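Q: What structure does this chain adopt?
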Amino acid sequence: MSKKLVIVMANTDPRNGEELGAPIFQASVAAAMDYEVEVICTATAGRLMKKGVAEKLFVKEGSPKSVYDFIKEAHEAGVKFYCCSPNLDLFNMTQGDLIPECEGVVGGAHLIEEVMEEDCKVMTY
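A:
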């Protein structure tokens, strides 16, 4: 059985809040099941790692919990969030602009290394 799950959020568009619930929820569930979980936000989803963005997004209109609330809960459960390095330039961000729950910035080599690990499973959104 795999002990690590990497969730890649690449095609998940923060402008469509309903797309954001499943990957973050599944990350939380996997962490609760004692899996090591990483969520790598790349492409458009990289915006989620910028301070002030996820706080304004909601999975469902009228919900009292923002997407940032879900990210914080997942992080508290042990999920590690990462921003893909090209996003810094793409969205005019610096590392100082990243939310505290973001463990840091990773490049393509990190993702490839993780995917190639024998005990790792990957989900993409």
